[in-house]
Every structure is written in C-alpha cells, then in structure tokens.
Specification:
The complex is a heterodimer. In chain A, about 5% of the residues lie in helices and about 30% in strands. By secondary structure, chain A is mainly β. In chain B, the strands form two sheets. In chain B, strands 3-2-4-7-1-8-11-10-9 form a nine-stranded mixed sheet, sandwiched between helices. Chain B has a two-stranded antiparallel sheet with strand order 5-6. The relative contact order of chain B is 0.19. Classes of the chains: A mainly beta, B alpha/beta.
Chain lengths: ~200, ~350
C-alpha cells in the first residue's frame, strides 16, 4: 500500500466587489414539461377496442397458452407475439391489495380507498384496479370481485370504462404465497343478481 | 484478451414514425431475426444487454416492457444502458472477457416519434446551467457547425457533399435506410438555412427503429457462424459535459478511443462513422485521421437513418456486415452519444485471415 495523495485544499474564490455579500445559491428549480403521443400498438389497441364494446379481451401465447390481460404484445416466457385473442368473463380474484390512507399529488379519491391486483378468471396475469362497495376492513386476498362498468353510452377506449371492481358473493379462492390463484374455489350455485 | 466475434446482425426498416406498433412489437421481429441468424434461442444466451431511454417514448420503465419481447422468463442474466446500443455491446464484450459466458445478445431501439426529439434531447444537458435554456439538439449542432466553419475546419460545400453522398449511398446500398435519394450537392447549397448555418439536408432524419447483434467467444464462434467478424479492439471515451469548456471543432475523445482501439495498426477498408450531422462526419474524419479517399458510411450512416440509441449499434452491425459479405477485411465502427459528439466509442473489426 502506498500512502494516499493528500487531498488538495479547495481554492479560495474571491467574488468581484459587485457580488460581495450576495447570498449563495443553494437551490435551483428547473421546471420541465414534455408532451408525448402514446402509441398503443397492436395488442393494446385490441384490448382498448374490446373495452369500448363492454368486453375484456386478453391475448394468449401460442406456445404456452398463458393469457395476458391487457397484453403488451409479447409473451415474456417465450418472446413471441401473443397472437390469440381470448374474451374473459369479467369476475376475478383479488391476489393482493393496498389500503391507501395518504393523499398524493393529483389524487381524486376519497380516503381511505383500496387498490387491488386482480387475477381475472381465465387470465394468467394481474390487472390493477380500484376496489369499491367494500369497507377496507372487509377486503381480503382470495376474495372474488366483479367489474362495474360505466353506462354503455360512456364506454371509451380506456380502463376507466370499468369504474371499479366490487366484491362478488362467491366462496373465496386459494391464492399461494407468490400471489397466484391455485384453486378458484367452488363455483357459485346461481349467478349473482346483476345490479 | 479473449477473442470476441459478431456472429449476427439484424435491423428494422427505419421510418419517421411506426404508428401501428408499440416498442416491444417493433423490436420483436428484429431480436427474433438476430437470434435466428445465429440459430439460437434466448435460453442459449449467456448475457443480454439493451440500450434505450424511457425519455424518448415518454414511458416509464419501457425498457422492462420491451424485455418481454426476448422472453426473459425463466430469469436471464440481463442489463440495460441508458446509452446507445453500442455501449450495451461494450458491456457485453466486457462480460465475455470475464470468461463466465460464451454468448451475448445486444439490442437497442427507439420510438422518437412519440415526442419532440430535439426538445427531449435537451434533457441530457446539465440541469443547472444549460438544461434550463432548453437548448435543443439541432441548436447545439448548429453551434458546433458555426465554430467549425469559423475555424475553417469544415466548409458548407464539404457538408453538402456529405449530405448528398450519404443519401445516395443509402439508395444504392441500404434498403433499411429511411432517406434514400439522389439529391446533388449543388441543390443542397441552394437550400435555406434551418438553424444557424445548418440546412435541413445537414440534419439527420428522426427515425423509429431497432437493431440487434449476437456476440460469441471461444469455441461457440465457429459453431454459430461461418463468417465471424472479430472485434480486434474496442474503447470508449467522454469529453466534458460543459459545452463551454470544450473545443467544439475537435473530437478528442473519439481520437483517444480510436488510439486505444488500435485503429492505426493496419489499413482500414471501410469506416462506419456515427455522424448525425454533416459537419460531424468532417470533424470525425479529422479526429480519426480518415484518408480522403476512404470508404465512409457505405450504408448512408446516421444521415440516412438515425434511430436514437440505435444508430451507433447499427454502425457496428454495418461495419461487420461488410466483412461478412466479403466487401472488406478490416473496418472501423464508431458510435456517439450526447451533445455535439461528447461521448465516443470506436471498434476495430476484422474477418478471418485467409
């Protein structure tokens, strides 16, 4: 080991007289704004067009047949386009959720509210959405939920066409520690009444 | 040093705007083609490295979405650089030097069409003194061009010749290029200035596109390619960030990278210089001591297709393609990034000795 070179002392800076006594700048603010045109692409277009028709369309990998919703266009297991369109019924199982108690910039929700990760029946990937018509205390992993859509004349190519998901009266599914549904549970004896 | 070779190269047909596909959909056919050329699946690859920046499409973590397109599950060894894919290739080359892997996959892509590219590029400037001025990429290039014109390092006539030759060569040699036409230099001399001394023809197109390269080392090289292209030297260097402390009429970091990569050790049959603006090529020719009669940018270069963060990787691919096709034996590829040729990478490529 050789001795480290001594650290040179910072030079003394002498300000011109006109700047004598001026307060140092400790912080600058640099506002920045950039506008972009979002390109949905083939897969997201399929999903969003489906939404305008009151349909939830996933896409399946032609090799492993896993269903992604919404698909971004590629199967991450096989690196191929998700080429098969699959229509999903709508209900799904809550595989994770978060109770939001803190307002953040741009937040429009009344506190507290629940954000949920939902595995739709027939899908292998999760959809994130709001969980409403349920007290945060009653929300649980494994719970069945169903989408509540906007009125048909308000349907638009956005996930906001589904206003939120709400609990469905059906026996809980089994969700493993990794957050995947391992058993969808007993099927309902009769279809729940539509609100 | 472990010998590393480029064994496959693929790129998209570059265009002003790919409007019907998202990034992963645009990228997937290119990564597929590069893997197919080498006869590989992603599971056969030791290390994957990509180059892109979320600023271009305005999508947070877009590089994670595009990774889906190569099939990263079960988990793969993977890395990403917020740089041109040429630097992703450099990282993969370093990884291959460690001897822990024998194959590497490199790709890059960009959809600059989503945003206002000259403005977006201003965000790579220092955020205190220059960034707040929103100095866009064309204005910075114009500053450098004016400095070089004033210093007599370049002339408007020579710049017009570069503009004309690049698009003409793309027309003749490169079906993937975006600007392919025969427009003589005297017509360009008659063009109005766009920004400063720069005419529209002196500027690169805005391009959406992608490219991918497979690297191999050791015994794998011969298994994967009949005509491997060897990376004999590769180096990258950076000039200071502050524009004010740089001599914008020179490219010292490119010269140093070329020196370290061993460019001068033997004659060069063809050069692929990543020169987005016409004066950039002239400055790089001087910095790298390119002979006047050299073959430069037979592909048309970045003036014919300039997908951000990808045009540098394409220079490596084009320089390799010329060797694999038997058009050249020893070529030099150069990549740049940052304002006014700030960061530079140089690689020396060679075919097998006959």
């Amino acid at each position: 080991m050789t001795a480290a070179a001594p650290i040179p002392e910072a030079p003394t800076i002498t300000l011109p007289g006109a700047l004598a006594g001026v307060e140092g700048v400790t912080r600058v603010s640099t506002p920045a704004r950039l506008d972009y045109d979002f390109t949905a692409g083939r897969a997201t277009t399929t999903f969003l067009r489906g939404i305008t028709q009151h349909k939830i369309l996933g896409e399946a990998c032609p090799i492993c047949h896993k269903v992604y919703v919404p698909s971004r266009g590629a199967c991450p297991s096989h690196g191929v386009p998700t080429s098969e369109v699959v229509e999903l019924a709508g209900p799904g199982v809550l595989v994770s959720y978060c109770v939001v108690n803190v307002a953040f910039h741009g937040s429009v929700m009344e506190l507290p509210y629940v954000g949920g990760l939902i595995q739709l029946e027939g899908a292998d990937m999760f959809l994130m959405h709001l969980i409403q018509e349920a007290s945060p205390d009653d929300v649980r992993i494994g719970q069945w939920v169903e989408p509540v859509w906007v009125d048909d004349d308000e349907l638009a190519p956005t996930l906001e066409s589904i206003r939120y998901f709400r609990p469905l009266d059906r026996a809980d599914a089994v969700v493993d520690e990794a957050g995947h549904v391992t058993s969808w549970g007993p099927q309902p004896k009769e279809a729940p009444a539509d609100a | 040093m472990r010998e590393v070779a480029i064994v496959s190269f693929a790129q998209s047909r570059h265009s002003r705007a790919v409007e019907d596909l998202n990034e992963v959909e645009m990228l997937m056919p290119v990564t597929r083609a590069a893997l197919d050329q080498a006869g590989l699946e992603i599971a056969d690859i030791g290390f994957t490295c990509s180059g892109s920046t979320d600023y271009l499409a305005g999508n947070a973590f877009s590089f994670v979405s595009t990774l889906d397109g190569v099939g990263p599950w079960p988990p793969i060894q993977e890395s990403h650089v917020e740089m041109d894919g040429a630097w992703a290739l450099y990282e993969a080359w370093v990884k291959l030097q460690t001897g822990s892997i024998d194959t590497a996959f490199v790709y890059s892509y960009s959809k600059a069409s989503s945003g206002d590219l000259p403005k977006v590029l201003s965000r790579q400037l220092d955020p205190y003194a220059v960034g707040p001025l929103w100095l866009d990429s064309i204005s910075i290039a114009a500053l450098a061009a004016s400095a070089a014109l004033d210093a007599g390092s370049v002339t408007l006539e020579a710049m017009a010749e570069v503009a004309a030759r690049s698009r003409r060569d793309a027309l003749a040699n490169n079906e993937y290029a975006q600007l392919r036409f025969d427009r003589p230099a005297d017509e360009i001399m008659a063009e109005d200035a766009l920004v400063g001394a720069l005419r529209r023809s002196d500027c690169p197109p805005i391009s959406d596109g992608a490219a991918a390269i497979v690297l191999a080392a050791g015994d794998r090289v011969r298994e994967l390619s009949e005509h491997p292209v060897w990376i004999r030297g590769i180096d990258h260097r950076i000039d200071p960030m502050a524009l004010g402390v740089r001599d914008l009429t020179d490219v010292p970091s490119a010269r140093l990278a070329a020196d370290k990569a061993g460019v001068a050790a033997a004659p060069v049959d063809a050069w692929e210089l990543h020169a987005p603006f016409t004066h950039d090529e002239l400055l790089l020719r001087r910095a790298l001591a390119v002979p006047d009669d050299a073959v430069v940018n037979r592909s048309g270069g970045a003036l014919a297709a300039n997908p951000m963060l990808t045009a540098g990787l394409i220079r490596l691919g084009e320089a390799a393609r010329q060797i694999a096709a038997g058009e050249a034996h020893r070529t030099v590829a150069h990549a740049t990034q940052g304002p006014a040729l700030q960061q530079n990478l140089v690689a020396v490529l060679e075919g097998d000795h006959s």
